[in-house]
Amino acid sequence: MYATILKGNSCHNPPGQGGGQFCSQQGQAPRLTALDVTQGKAREEIAWREENLRKIISHYGLEELAKDAEDNLRKLIDASEVHIRRMTLRSVEDMLRRGGRMLTQFDTTTSSGAKNKKVRAQRENVLFGLSRDPYKDLENRPSYGYLQTKDDPYNSAGQYGRVDIKLKPSVRERVTYTVGDSLRVLEDSLNPGRVKNSGAMGIPTFQPVPLQSMNLSSMVPLRYMLTTSRGQDGLPVRGNTKAEYTRMFQKLAKAKTLSEVHNIVKTPYIEAQIHGQIRAGDIESITVPSGMTLTKSALNAAKKLGVKIVQSTSKEFVSIIKANPYHDPRTGRFTHGPGSGTSKDSAITPKMEEAIASARDEVLSYQDGKEHGVVVGPDGRPFFAKDGEASSIEFTKDEMAMFPRCVMVHNHPSGGSLSIQDILFAGTCQLAAVEAVSNDGVYRAIPNASLLDQTNHPFIYGTQKLADSFYEQQIGFNVMMGNITPTVASLLHVDLIMESLSDLGFFKYERKSASPYLQRVHDFLDDDVRSKLKSQFFGALANSIKNAPEDIKSEMSKAKLFNEQLIPRSVFN
Protein backbone atom coordinates (compact mmCIF):
# COMPACT_ATOMS: atom_id res chain seq x y z
CA MET A 1 0.00 0.00 0.00
CA TYR A 2 2.68 2.50 1.02
CA ALA A 3 4.89 1.55 -1.91
CA THR A 4 2.13 2.19 -4.46
CA ILE A 5 1.38 5.63 -3.09
CA LEU A 6 4.98 6.67 -2.68
CA LYS A 7 6.21 5.44 -6.03
CA GLY A 8 3.53 7.48 -7.75
CA ASN A 9 5.44 10.49 -6.44
CA SER A 10 6.92 12.56 -9.28
CA CYS A 11 10.11 12.86 -7.27
CA HIS A 12 10.78 9.13 -7.03
CA ASN A 13 13.58 7.61 -9.07
CA PRO A 14 12.77 4.00 -10.01
CA PRO A 15 15.46 1.33 -9.61
CA GLY A 16 18.18 1.82 -12.18
CA GLN A 17 17.63 5.61 -12.18
CA GLY A 18 18.93 6.47 -8.76
CA GLY A 19 18.42 3.22 -6.90
CA GLY A 20 14.75 3.67 -6.04
CA GLN A 21 15.54 6.74 -3.97
CA PHE A 22 13.57 9.97 -3.53
CA CYS A 23 15.04 13.24 -4.70
CA SER A 24 14.23 16.73 -3.42
CA GLN A 25 12.61 19.54 -5.35
CA GLN A 26 13.73 23.13 -5.06
CA GLY A 27 12.15 24.83 -2.05
CA GLN A 28 10.75 21.58 -0.69
CA ALA A 29 11.92 19.03 1.86
CA PRO A 30 13.13 15.67 0.53
CA ARG A 31 10.36 13.20 -0.13
CA LEU A 32 9.81 10.03 1.86
CA THR A 33 12.80 7.78 2.12
CA ALA A 34 11.58 4.83 4.19
CA LEU A 35 7.96 3.90 3.61
CA ASP A 36 8.48 2.33 0.20
CA VAL A 37 9.59 -0.75 2.14
CA THR A 38 6.40 -1.79 3.88
CA GLN A 39 6.98 -4.12 6.79
CA GLY A 40 5.33 -7.54 6.64
CA LYS A 41 3.67 -7.26 10.03
CA ALA A 42 2.17 -3.91 9.08
CA ARG A 43 0.75 -5.28 5.81
CA GLU A 44 -0.64 -8.33 7.57
CA GLU A 45 -2.32 -6.35 10.32
CA ILE A 46 -3.90 -3.79 7.99
CA ALA A 47 -5.35 -6.60 5.87
CA TRP A 48 -6.47 -8.48 8.99
CA ARG A 49 -8.30 -5.44 10.37
CA GLU A 50 -10.06 -4.63 7.11
CA GLU A 51 -11.19 -8.22 6.56
CA ASN A 52 -12.46 -8.73 10.11
CA LEU A 53 -14.40 -5.47 10.16
CA ARG A 54 -15.90 -6.30 6.76
CA LYS A 55 -17.12 -9.66 8.12
CA ILE A 56 -18.67 -8.07 11.20
CA ILE A 57 -20.41 -5.32 9.21
CA SER A 58 -21.82 -7.95 6.84
CA HIS A 59 -22.91 -10.18 9.73
CA TYR A 60 -24.93 -7.36 11.29
CA GLY A 61 -26.16 -5.90 7.98
CA LEU A 62 -24.63 -2.47 8.68
CA GLU A 63 -23.07 -1.82 5.26
CA GLU A 64 -24.92 1.43 4.59
CA LEU A 65 -24.32 2.88 8.05
CA ALA A 66 -20.63 1.90 7.93
CA LYS A 67 -20.29 3.61 4.53
CA ASP A 68 -21.81 6.82 5.94
CA ALA A 69 -19.33 6.73 8.84
CA GLU A 70 -16.37 6.12 6.53
CA ASP A 71 -17.42 8.86 4.09
CA ASN A 72 -17.72 11.40 6.92
CA LEU A 73 -14.38 10.38 8.44
CA ARG A 74 -12.71 10.75 5.05
CA LYS A 75 -14.09 14.29 4.75
CA LEU A 76 -12.77 15.17 8.22
CA ILE A 77 -9.34 13.69 7.53
CA ASP A 78 -9.13 15.34 4.09
CA ALA A 79 -9.96 18.75 5.63
CA SER A 80 -7.69 18.35 8.66
CA GLU A 81 -4.60 20.40 9.46
CA VAL A 82 -1.22 18.94 10.43
CA HIS A 83 0.33 20.42 13.58
CA ILE A 84 3.34 19.64 15.72
CA ARG A 85 4.22 20.81 19.24
CA ARG A 86 7.45 21.88 20.86
CA MET A 87 8.14 22.50 24.55
CA THR A 88 10.47 25.45 23.85
CA LEU A 89 11.23 27.85 21.00
CA ARG A 90 14.93 26.99 20.78
CA SER A 91 14.79 24.35 18.01
CA VAL A 92 12.29 26.46 16.06
CA GLU A 93 14.50 29.56 16.27
CA ASP A 94 17.57 27.61 15.13
CA MET A 95 15.71 26.27 12.12
CA LEU A 96 14.38 29.71 11.16
CA ARG A 97 17.76 31.44 11.49
CA ARG A 98 20.05 28.82 10.00
CA GLY A 99 17.81 26.91 7.64
CA GLY A 100 18.00 23.14 7.43
CA ARG A 101 15.59 20.58 8.80
CA MET A 102 13.71 20.47 12.08
CA LEU A 103 15.62 18.23 14.47
CA THR A 104 14.05 15.14 16.05
CA GLN A 105 14.62 13.39 19.38
CA PHE A 106 17.45 11.39 17.78
CA ASP A 107 19.36 14.63 17.11
CA THR A 108 18.63 16.50 20.34
CA THR A 109 18.26 13.61 22.86
CA THR A 110 15.22 15.47 24.24
CA SER A 111 11.52 14.72 23.83
CA SER A 112 8.19 15.75 25.32
CA GLY A 113 7.08 12.13 25.02
CA ALA A 114 8.95 8.86 25.54
CA LYS A 115 12.67 9.58 25.94
CA ASN A 116 14.20 6.15 25.25
CA LYS A 117 15.79 6.51 21.80
CA LYS A 118 16.54 2.79 21.55
CA VAL A 119 12.87 1.85 22.08
CA ARG A 120 11.69 4.45 19.58
CA ALA A 121 14.25 3.22 17.01
CA GLN A 122 12.95 -0.33 17.46
CA ARG A 123 9.39 0.88 16.90
CA GLU A 124 10.36 2.81 13.78
CA ASN A 125 12.14 -0.26 12.45
CA VAL A 126 8.93 -2.29 12.61
CA LEU A 127 6.62 0.52 11.52
CA PHE A 128 8.70 2.22 8.82
CA GLY A 129 11.68 0.00 8.05
CA LEU A 130 14.24 2.40 9.55
CA SER A 131 17.42 1.28 11.28
CA ARG A 132 17.17 -0.19 14.77
CA ASP A 133 20.33 1.75 15.57
CA PRO A 134 19.28 5.11 17.08
CA TYR A 135 22.44 6.74 15.68
CA LYS A 136 21.64 5.86 12.06
CA ASP A 137 18.99 7.10 9.60
CA LEU A 138 18.83 10.43 11.48
CA GLU A 139 17.73 12.43 8.43
CA ASN A 140 15.02 9.91 7.61
CA ARG A 141 13.43 9.77 11.08
CA PRO A 142 9.86 11.07 11.07
CA SER A 143 8.68 14.03 13.11
CA TYR A 144 5.59 13.46 15.25
CA GLY A 145 2.55 15.73 15.35
CA TYR A 146 -1.22 15.45 15.23
CA LEU A 147 -4.25 16.17 13.05
CA GLN A 148 -6.92 18.68 13.98
CA THR A 149 -9.99 20.24 12.46
CA LYS A 150 -9.57 23.93 11.63
CA ASP A 151 -10.56 26.21 14.54
CA ASP A 152 -11.15 23.19 16.79
CA PRO A 153 -7.83 22.63 18.59
CA TYR A 154 -9.14 20.51 21.46
CA ASN A 155 -7.18 17.32 22.06
CA SER A 156 -4.59 16.09 24.53
CA ALA A 157 -1.52 16.83 22.42
CA GLY A 158 -0.79 19.84 24.64
CA GLN A 159 1.35 17.58 26.82
CA TYR A 160 3.99 17.71 24.07
CA GLY A 161 4.50 21.45 24.41
CA ARG A 162 2.88 24.87 24.23
CA VAL A 163 4.50 26.01 20.97
CA ASP A 164 2.06 25.10 18.19
CA ILE A 165 3.47 24.75 14.66
CA LYS A 166 0.98 24.48 11.80
CA LEU A 167 2.36 22.86 8.64
CA LYS A 168 1.41 23.66 5.06
CA PRO A 169 -1.05 21.40 3.19
CA SER A 170 1.79 20.35 0.89
CA VAL A 171 3.23 18.08 3.62
CA ARG A 172 0.12 15.90 3.64
CA GLU A 173 1.47 13.58 0.94
CA ARG A 174 4.28 12.72 3.38
CA VAL A 175 2.05 12.02 6.38
CA THR A 176 0.92 8.75 7.92
CA TYR A 177 -1.36 8.64 10.95
CA THR A 178 -2.39 6.48 13.89
CA VAL A 179 -5.36 7.00 16.16
CA GLY A 180 -3.42 7.48 19.37
CA ASP A 181 0.25 7.23 20.31
CA SER A 182 2.20 5.13 17.78
CA LEU A 183 4.50 3.83 20.52
CA ARG A 184 1.51 2.44 22.43
CA VAL A 185 0.03 1.39 19.11
CA LEU A 186 2.90 -0.91 18.23
CA GLU A 187 3.09 -2.60 21.61
CA ASP A 188 -0.55 -3.65 21.51
CA SER A 189 -1.33 -3.98 17.81
CA LEU A 190 1.33 -6.63 17.23
CA ASN A 191 -0.19 -8.62 20.09
CA PRO A 192 -3.96 -8.55 19.46
CA GLY A 193 -4.48 -11.64 21.62
CA ARG A 194 -2.97 -9.87 24.61
CA VAL A 195 -5.10 -6.78 24.02
CA LYS A 196 -8.19 -8.97 23.75
CA ASN A 197 -7.57 -10.38 27.21
CA SER A 198 -6.52 -7.12 28.87
CA GLY A 199 -8.58 -4.52 30.65
CA ALA A 200 -7.54 -1.88 28.10
CA MET A 201 -9.76 -3.03 25.24
CA GLY A 202 -11.01 0.49 24.56
CA ILE A 203 -7.53 1.72 23.57
CA PRO A 204 -7.39 2.27 19.79
CA THR A 205 -4.43 0.35 18.37
CA PHE A 206 -3.36 0.77 14.76
CA GLN A 207 -0.62 0.52 12.18
CA PRO A 208 0.32 3.84 10.51
CA VAL A 209 -1.76 4.55 7.41
CA PRO A 210 -1.09 7.24 4.75
CA LEU A 211 -3.63 10.08 4.86
CA GLN A 212 -4.65 9.26 1.28
CA SER A 213 -5.54 5.68 2.32
CA MET A 214 -7.92 6.50 5.19
CA ASN A 215 -10.54 3.80 5.75
CA LEU A 216 -12.99 2.90 8.51
CA SER A 217 -10.88 0.08 9.95
CA SER A 218 -7.98 2.50 10.51
CA MET A 219 -10.18 4.66 12.76
CA VAL A 220 -12.05 2.07 14.85
CA PRO A 221 -10.65 0.65 18.13
CA LEU A 222 -9.03 -2.76 17.85
CA ARG A 223 -11.53 -4.51 20.10
CA TYR A 224 -14.22 -4.00 17.44
CA MET A 225 -12.11 -6.03 14.98
CA LEU A 226 -11.97 -9.15 17.13
CA THR A 227 -13.93 -12.16 15.85
CA THR A 228 -14.44 -15.69 17.06
CA SER A 229 -12.03 -18.39 15.93
CA ARG A 230 -14.71 -20.86 14.81
CA GLY A 231 -13.82 -21.42 11.18
CA GLN A 232 -14.45 -18.49 8.86
CA ASP A 233 -17.76 -17.35 10.33
CA GLY A 234 -16.41 -13.90 11.25
CA LEU A 235 -18.74 -13.55 14.23
CA PRO A 236 -17.88 -10.69 16.59
CA VAL A 237 -16.57 -11.64 20.01
CA ARG A 238 -19.01 -11.80 22.89
CA GLY A 239 -19.95 -8.34 24.10
CA ASN A 240 -19.59 -6.54 20.77
CA THR A 241 -23.29 -6.27 20.01
CA LYS A 242 -25.04 -4.92 16.93
CA ALA A 243 -26.35 -2.02 19.03
CA GLU A 244 -22.79 -1.09 20.00
CA TYR A 245 -21.56 -1.00 16.38
CA THR A 246 -24.70 0.86 15.32
CA ARG A 247 -24.21 3.60 17.92
CA MET A 248 -20.54 3.98 17.05
CA PHE A 249 -21.15 4.21 13.28
CA GLN A 250 -24.03 6.65 13.78
CA LYS A 251 -21.86 8.92 15.92
CA LEU A 252 -18.94 8.76 13.48
CA ALA A 253 -21.28 9.58 10.58
CA LYS A 254 -22.49 12.73 12.37
CA ALA A 255 -19.18 13.96 13.84
CA LYS A 256 -18.35 17.50 12.75
CA THR A 257 -14.80 17.73 14.13
CA LEU A 258 -11.93 15.41 14.91
CA SER A 259 -12.27 16.25 18.61
CA GLU A 260 -15.72 14.61 18.43
CA VAL A 261 -14.09 11.59 16.81
CA HIS A 262 -11.56 11.47 19.69
CA ASN A 263 -14.44 11.11 22.15
CA ILE A 264 -16.17 8.43 20.09
CA VAL A 265 -13.14 6.17 19.58
CA LYS A 266 -11.69 7.01 23.02
CA THR A 267 -8.36 8.51 22.05
CA PRO A 268 -6.65 11.74 23.17
CA TYR A 269 -5.51 12.67 19.64
CA ILE A 270 -4.82 11.42 16.11
CA GLU A 271 -1.05 11.24 15.76
CA ALA A 272 0.61 12.32 12.50
CA GLN A 273 4.01 11.00 11.45
CA ILE A 274 5.63 13.48 9.03
CA HIS A 275 8.27 11.83 6.85
CA GLY A 276 11.03 13.25 4.67
CA GLN A 277 12.10 16.04 7.06
CA ILE A 278 10.42 19.32 8.04
CA ARG A 279 12.03 22.53 6.85
CA ALA A 280 11.07 26.19 7.31
CA GLY A 281 9.38 26.15 3.91
CA ASP A 282 6.95 23.52 5.22
CA ILE A 283 5.68 25.76 8.03
CA GLU A 284 2.58 27.90 7.60
CA SER A 285 2.44 29.46 11.07
CA ILE A 286 3.88 29.28 14.58
CA THR A 287 1.73 30.13 17.60
CA VAL A 288 3.90 31.42 20.42
CA PRO A 289 2.19 31.02 23.84
CA SER A 290 1.90 33.84 26.34
CA GLY A 291 5.10 34.15 28.36
CA MET A 292 7.36 33.24 25.41
CA THR A 293 8.78 35.43 22.64
CA LEU A 294 10.88 34.74 19.57
CA THR A 295 14.22 36.52 19.24
CA LYS A 296 14.42 39.47 16.86
CA SER A 297 16.66 37.52 14.48
CA ALA A 298 14.19 34.61 14.40
CA LEU A 299 11.28 37.00 13.77
CA ASN A 300 13.16 38.60 10.87
CA ALA A 301 13.98 35.18 9.44
CA ALA A 302 10.33 34.10 9.74
CA LYS A 303 9.23 37.23 7.88
CA LYS A 304 11.65 36.54 5.02
CA LEU A 305 10.50 32.91 4.82
CA GLY A 306 6.81 33.85 4.85
CA VAL A 307 6.13 32.02 8.13
CA LYS A 308 3.27 33.65 10.04
CA ILE A 309 3.98 34.25 13.75
CA VAL A 310 0.94 34.36 16.03
CA GLN A 311 1.45 35.61 19.59
CA SER A 312 -1.11 33.87 21.79
CA THR A 313 -3.09 35.98 24.29
CA SER A 314 -4.75 35.05 27.57
CA LYS A 315 -8.18 34.61 25.98
CA GLU A 316 -8.06 30.82 25.79
CA PHE A 317 -10.99 30.57 28.20
CA VAL A 318 -13.28 32.35 25.74
CA SER A 319 -12.36 30.00 22.88
CA ILE A 320 -12.86 26.94 25.06
CA ILE A 321 -16.27 28.11 26.24
CA LYS A 322 -17.46 28.79 22.70
CA ALA A 323 -16.35 25.33 21.57
CA ASN A 324 -18.23 23.49 24.29
CA PRO A 325 -21.37 21.40 23.63
CA TYR A 326 -23.63 23.79 25.54
CA HIS A 327 -22.89 26.76 23.27
CA ASP A 328 -25.01 27.48 20.17
CA PRO A 329 -22.74 29.25 17.65
CA ARG A 330 -25.73 30.43 15.60
CA THR A 331 -27.13 32.57 18.40
CA GLY A 332 -24.01 32.97 20.55
CA ARG A 333 -26.08 31.81 23.50
CA PHE A 334 -25.53 29.04 25.99
CA THR A 335 -27.96 26.17 26.44
CA HIS A 336 -28.09 23.18 28.78
CA GLY A 337 -29.14 19.56 28.61
CA PRO A 338 -32.14 17.66 30.01
CA GLY A 339 -32.88 17.21 33.68
CA SER A 340 -35.00 18.44 36.52
CA GLY A 341 -34.64 21.86 38.09
CA THR A 342 -32.21 22.99 40.74
CA SER A 343 -32.54 21.27 44.10
CA LYS A 344 -30.83 21.60 47.46
CA ASP A 345 -27.80 19.47 48.36
CA SER A 346 -28.83 16.01 49.51
CA ALA A 347 -27.32 14.36 52.57
CA ILE A 348 -25.95 10.83 52.22
CA THR A 349 -27.29 8.74 55.10
CA PRO A 350 -25.46 5.86 56.85
CA LYS A 351 -27.92 3.45 55.26
CA MET A 352 -27.04 4.82 51.82
CA GLU A 353 -23.33 4.41 52.61
CA GLU A 354 -23.88 0.71 53.33
CA ALA A 355 -25.62 0.24 49.98
CA ILE A 356 -22.89 2.29 48.23
CA ALA A 357 -20.22 -0.07 49.61
CA SER A 358 -22.10 -3.06 48.20
CA ALA A 359 -22.54 -1.25 44.87
CA ARG A 360 -18.77 -0.75 44.64
CA ASP A 361 -18.21 -4.49 45.01
CA GLU A 362 -20.87 -5.15 42.39
CA VAL A 363 -19.43 -2.91 39.67
CA LEU A 364 -15.89 -4.18 40.31
CA SER A 365 -16.93 -7.83 40.08
CA TYR A 366 -17.35 -7.81 36.28
CA GLN A 367 -13.69 -7.32 35.23
CA ASP A 368 -14.73 -7.30 31.56
CA GLY A 369 -13.12 -4.00 30.51
CA LYS A 370 -16.48 -2.17 30.45
CA GLU A 371 -18.25 0.31 32.71
CA HIS A 372 -21.16 -0.75 34.92
CA GLY A 373 -23.34 1.51 37.04
CA VAL A 374 -25.53 1.03 40.11
CA VAL A 375 -27.85 3.76 41.45
CA VAL A 376 -28.58 3.90 45.18
CA GLY A 377 -31.79 5.70 46.17
CA PRO A 378 -32.37 8.13 49.09
CA ASP A 379 -33.95 5.23 51.04
CA GLY A 380 -30.63 3.38 51.00
CA ARG A 381 -31.62 0.75 48.46
CA PRO A 382 -30.01 0.13 45.06
CA PHE A 383 -32.86 0.34 42.58
CA PHE A 384 -31.27 0.65 39.12
CA ALA A 385 -28.30 -0.87 37.30
CA LYS A 386 -27.00 -0.59 33.76
CA ASP A 387 -24.07 -1.96 31.75
CA GLY A 388 -22.03 0.29 29.47
CA GLU A 389 -19.16 0.24 27.03
CA ALA A 390 -15.40 0.58 27.51
CA SER A 391 -15.57 4.14 28.83
CA SER A 392 -19.20 5.22 29.03
CA ILE A 393 -22.71 4.28 30.09
CA GLU A 394 -25.65 5.77 28.19
CA PHE A 395 -28.93 6.63 29.96
CA THR A 396 -32.30 7.66 28.57
CA LYS A 397 -34.11 10.82 29.71
CA ASP A 398 -36.70 8.69 31.51
CA GLU A 399 -33.97 6.86 33.41
CA MET A 400 -32.22 10.09 34.34
CA ALA A 401 -35.48 11.51 35.67
CA MET A 402 -35.41 8.85 38.42
CA PHE A 403 -32.00 9.90 39.79
CA PRO A 404 -32.44 13.14 41.82
CA ARG A 405 -31.01 12.81 45.35
CA CYS A 406 -29.53 9.40 44.47
CA VAL A 407 -25.89 8.24 44.32
CA MET A 408 -24.44 6.84 41.10
CA VAL A 409 -21.63 4.30 41.59
CA HIS A 410 -19.76 3.20 38.48
CA ASN A 411 -16.40 1.65 37.66
CA HIS A 412 -13.54 3.00 35.57
CA PRO A 413 -11.91 -0.10 34.00
CA SER A 414 -8.73 1.80 33.18
CA GLY A 415 -8.57 3.37 36.67
CA GLY A 416 -8.34 7.04 37.47
CA SER A 417 -10.56 9.72 38.90
CA LEU A 418 -13.88 11.21 37.81
CA SER A 419 -14.26 12.76 34.36
CA ILE A 420 -15.95 16.06 33.47
CA GLN A 421 -18.73 13.97 31.93
CA ASP A 422 -19.29 12.31 35.33
CA ILE A 423 -19.40 15.73 37.01
CA LEU A 424 -21.87 17.30 34.57
CA PHE A 425 -24.00 14.13 34.68
CA ALA A 426 -24.23 14.53 38.47
CA GLY A 427 -25.47 18.09 38.05
CA THR A 428 -27.88 17.29 35.23
CA CYS A 429 -29.46 14.41 37.19
CA GLN A 430 -29.42 16.27 40.52
CA LEU A 431 -27.44 13.45 42.14
CA ALA A 432 -26.49 13.52 45.79
CA ALA A 433 -23.09 12.18 44.69
CA VAL A 434 -21.29 10.34 41.91
CA GLU A 435 -18.49 7.82 42.47
CA ALA A 436 -15.81 6.39 40.20
CA VAL A 437 -14.42 3.06 41.39
CA SER A 438 -11.41 1.02 40.30
CA ASN A 439 -9.19 -1.67 41.83
CA ASP A 440 -6.88 1.12 43.00
CA GLY A 441 -9.36 3.42 44.72
CA VAL A 442 -12.66 5.29 45.01
CA TYR A 443 -13.32 8.93 44.07
CA ARG A 444 -16.48 10.83 45.00
CA ALA A 445 -17.96 14.20 43.99
CA ILE A 446 -20.84 15.78 45.93
CA PRO A 447 -22.47 18.53 43.82
CA ASN A 448 -22.77 22.05 45.18
CA ALA A 449 -25.51 24.48 44.18
CA SER A 450 -23.53 25.89 41.25
CA LEU A 451 -23.25 22.43 39.66
CA LEU A 452 -26.91 21.59 40.23
CA ASP A 453 -27.88 24.73 38.28
CA GLN A 454 -27.47 23.55 34.69
CA THR A 455 -27.19 27.05 33.26
CA ASN A 456 -23.70 27.06 34.83
CA HIS A 457 -22.57 23.94 32.98
CA PRO A 458 -21.01 25.80 30.01
CA PHE A 459 -18.73 27.71 32.35
CA ILE A 460 -17.86 24.62 34.41
CA TYR A 461 -17.04 22.77 31.19
CA GLY A 462 -14.88 25.65 29.99
CA THR A 463 -13.06 25.88 33.32
CA GLN A 464 -12.28 22.15 33.19
CA LYS A 465 -10.89 22.48 29.66
CA LEU A 466 -8.63 25.34 30.72
CA ALA A 467 -7.45 23.30 33.74
CA ASP A 468 -6.86 20.32 31.46
CA SER A 469 -4.59 22.36 29.20
CA PHE A 470 -2.78 24.05 32.10
CA TYR A 471 -1.95 20.90 34.08
CA GLU A 472 -1.07 18.96 30.96
CA GLN A 473 1.77 21.40 30.33
CA GLN A 474 2.94 21.30 33.97
CA ILE A 475 2.80 17.51 34.35
CA GLY A 476 4.08 16.93 30.81
CA PHE A 477 7.34 18.62 31.72
CA ASN A 478 7.96 16.00 34.43
CA VAL A 479 7.37 13.24 31.90
CA MET A 480 9.80 14.88 29.49
CA MET A 481 12.46 15.06 32.24
CA GLY A 482 11.91 11.39 33.08
CA ASN A 483 10.66 12.15 36.61
CA ILE A 484 7.42 10.19 36.21
CA THR A 485 5.85 7.74 33.79
CA PRO A 486 2.99 8.73 31.44
CA THR A 487 0.60 6.53 33.49
CA VAL A 488 1.42 8.34 36.74
CA ALA A 489 1.23 11.67 34.91
CA SER A 490 -2.27 10.87 33.67
CA LEU A 491 -3.50 10.01 37.19
CA LEU A 492 -1.97 13.15 38.69
CA HIS A 493 -3.29 15.31 35.86
CA VAL A 494 -6.95 14.32 36.36
CA ASP A 495 -6.64 14.44 40.15
CA LEU A 496 -5.34 18.03 40.05
CA ILE A 497 -8.19 19.07 37.74
CA MET A 498 -10.80 17.62 40.11
CA GLU A 499 -9.14 19.22 43.16
CA SER A 500 -9.14 22.60 41.41
CA LEU A 501 -12.79 22.41 40.37
CA SER A 502 -13.64 21.41 43.92
CA ASP A 503 -11.68 24.34 45.39
CA LEU A 504 -13.51 26.68 43.01
CA GLY A 505 -16.79 25.58 44.60
CA PHE A 506 -18.49 23.38 41.98
CA PHE A 507 -18.55 20.23 44.12
CA LYS A 508 -16.88 18.56 47.09
CA TYR A 509 -14.16 16.17 45.93
CA GLU A 510 -13.20 13.19 48.08
CA ARG A 511 -10.79 10.30 47.75
CA LYS A 512 -12.69 7.65 49.66
CA SER A 513 -9.94 5.03 49.43
CA ALA A 514 -6.63 4.44 47.67
CA SER A 515 -4.39 1.42 47.17
CA PRO A 516 -0.73 1.74 48.24
CA TYR A 517 0.16 2.33 44.58
CA LEU A 518 -2.41 5.11 44.16
CA GLN A 519 -1.36 6.68 47.44
CA ARG A 520 2.23 6.81 46.22
CA VAL A 521 1.02 8.50 43.04
CA HIS A 522 -0.85 11.15 45.04
CA ASP A 523 2.14 11.62 47.33
CA PHE A 524 4.44 12.35 44.39
CA LEU A 525 3.33 15.98 44.74
CA ASP A 526 3.45 17.20 48.32
CA ASP A 527 0.89 19.67 49.65
CA ASP A 528 3.10 22.71 49.04
CA VAL A 529 3.71 21.80 45.41
CA ARG A 530 0.02 21.05 44.83
CA SER A 531 -0.98 24.37 46.37
CA LYS A 532 1.55 26.24 44.24
CA LEU A 533 0.36 24.58 41.02
CA LYS A 534 -3.29 25.24 41.82
CA SER A 535 -2.54 28.85 42.73
CA GLN A 536 -0.88 29.32 39.35
CA PHE A 537 -3.92 27.84 37.63
CA PHE A 538 -6.35 30.08 39.53
CA GLY A 539 -4.24 33.07 38.45
CA ALA A 540 -4.37 31.94 34.81
CA LEU A 541 -8.13 31.42 35.08
CA ALA A 542 -8.67 34.89 36.60
CA ASN A 543 -6.55 36.47 33.86
CA SER A 544 -8.52 34.66 31.14
CA ILE A 545 -11.85 35.81 32.61
CA LYS A 546 -10.56 39.36 32.91
CA ASN A 547 -9.78 39.39 29.18
CA ALA A 548 -13.10 37.81 28.15
CA PRO A 549 -15.72 39.79 26.17
CA GLU A 550 -18.12 41.81 28.31
CA ASP A 551 -21.18 39.66 27.50
CA ILE A 552 -19.48 36.49 28.75
CA LYS A 553 -18.11 38.23 31.85
CA SER A 554 -21.59 39.55 32.58
CA GLU A 555 -23.14 36.07 32.42
CA MET A 556 -20.43 34.60 34.62
CA SER A 557 -20.70 37.44 37.12
CA LYS A 558 -24.45 36.90 37.52
CA ALA A 559 -23.93 33.19 38.07
CA LYS A 560 -21.57 33.78 41.03
CA LEU A 561 -19.80 30.59 40.10
CA PHE A 562 -16.44 30.79 41.76
CA ASN A 563 -15.05 30.81 45.27
CA GLU A 564 -14.38 34.55 45.62
CA GLN A 565 -11.24 33.93 47.69
CA LEU A 566 -9.71 32.32 44.59
CA ILE A 567 -11.38 34.30 41.79
CA PRO A 568 -12.11 37.81 43.14
CA ARG A 569 -15.16 39.70 41.91
CA SER A 570 -12.84 42.41 40.60
CA VAL A 571 -11.95 40.27 37.54
CA PHE A 572 -15.49 40.78 36.23
CA ASN A 573 -15.29 44.59 36.34
Describe the secondary-structure layout.
Blueprint: H1 2-6, H2 40-60, H3 63-78, E1 81-86, H4 90-98, H5 105-108, H6 117-128, E2 143-148, E3 163-167, E4 175-179, H7 182-189, H8 192-196, E5 209-210, H9 242-254, H10 258-265, E6 270-274, E7 283-288, H11 296-305, E8 308-311, H12 316-322, E9 327-328, E10 333-334, H13 350-364, E11 372-376, E12 382-387, H14 397-400, E13 407-411, H15 420-428, E14 433-438, E15 441-447, H16 449-452, H17 457-480, H18 486-503, E16 507-514, H19 516-523, H20 527-546, H21 550-559
Parallel strand pairs: 7-8, 13-14
Antiparallel strand pairs: 1-2, 1-3, 2-6, 3-7, 4-5, 4-6, 9-10, 11-12, 11-13, 14-15, 15-16
Summary, kept brief:
With 573 residues, the chain is of the alpha+beta class.
